[in-house]
Amino acid sequence: MAETRIPVLNVKIDPVTMNEAVLIVENFIIEQKSRFIATANAEMVMMAQTDTELASILNKADLVIPDGAGVVWAARYKGHSIPERVAGYDLVQELLRKSAQKGYRIYFFGGAPGVAEKAKQWAEQQYQGVCIVGVRDGFFTPEDEPEIINQIKLCKPDILLVALGVPKQEKWLNQNLHHLNIPVSIGVGGTFDVMAGVTIRAPLWMQRANLEWLYRLLSQPQRAVRMLALPRFVLKVLLPKKH
Ligand code: UDP
Questions:
Q1: Atom 25, ligand 1: which residue's CA is nearest?
Q2: Which atom of ligand 1 is nearest to the CA of 223?
Q3: With CB atoms 3.0 to 4.6 Å apart as the test, which of 79, 84, 111, 165 could cross-link to 115 if both were Cys?
Q4: Quick check: is 120 in a domain?
Q5: Which atom of ligand 1 is least distant from the CA of 199?
Q6: DSSP state, residue 189
Q7: Computed from CA positions of residues 233, 61, 176, 54, in that sequence, does the dihedral angle turn out positive or negative?
Q8: What pLDDT is stored for residue 240 in this prediction?
């Protein structure tokens, strides 16, 4: 891995490029230990200010990619060098492409009923030969969990994508990682929603201009309250003592 981890408030982030992140995932698959990858953005970091369990899960993750433009800005503002933003959605697309080339087995867990299945169908059209070995929606009761875990294990994935939202996906994985015995598990938030066409990602020019948050605010105004975390994050980075 490149440099040491970079602190963004109380969460440490790996300054990796997309290519490095993909190579790290491929090494994790070779090594066959149960690795957990988190995709850090400003909202997650703000949650980790008060949710100490989440903070500790993130800080013991095997890789924390700089998913959001906010964390990249904050790291650079504090004088650290961080090569680029590595959006979780984009990492998933790279891994699906690799799966089509190398046969990596991928499992989709999470999203509303039907969404992971639709995301799978989309991926199969997009990446000919991709190997998606199972899907399960993310709405379940504690009684369903043993069956879900068994199903996932039976499918023997190399990569488990978990989309239950933050912090549920990180906490679920922290609890279950070790009996799942899967080389790589990644918390991927709204990724299946985008792949299934339930939500639409900002156009590339907005992503490049670091305005993806604005697009999200305009297209999903119901997220406005949650998104108040973003200006609070900026203030906390700029004026560490007061916020
Ligand atoms: N979700 C789920 N189970 C739950 C709560 C949420 O599967 O109990 C899914 C939800 O359907 C959505 C994803 O988790 O697909 C969360 O998406 P969001 O964009 O909110 O991700 P975040 O911003 O939390 O990363």
A1: 189
A2: 20
A3: 111
A4: yes
A5: 19
A6: T
A7: negative
A8: 78
Q: Which of 46, 161, 193 to mutate to test the pocket of ligand 1 (most atoms within 8 A of CB)?
A: 193
Total domains present in the chain? 1
Closest ligand 1 atom, residue 39 Cα: 25
* Half-sphere exposure at residue 56, Cβ-oriented, CA atoms within 13 angstroms: 5
Mean pLDDT per 10-residue segment, the chain (243 residues)? 83 98 98 98 98 98 97 97 97 98 98 98 98 98 96 98 98 95 97 97 94 92 92 94 62
Distance CA 148, CA 43 (A): 28
* Residue whose token pair is 């300054």: 15
Residue nearest to atom 21 of ligand 1 (CA): 189
Flag whether 242 is in a domain: no
Two structure tokens written together for 49: 């200010």
Q: Which amino acid is at 102?
A: K
Q: Which residues line ligand 1 (CB under 6 A)?
A: 110-112, 138-139, 163-166, 168, 189-190, 192-193
In a domain, 93, yes or no: yes
Please indicate, yes or no, if residue 42 is contained in any of the structural domains: yes
CA-nearest residue for atom 18, ligand 1, is 190
Per-residue confidence (pLDDT) for residue 243, from 0 to 100: 55
Question: What CATH code is carried by the domain that includes residue 29?
Answer: 3.40.50
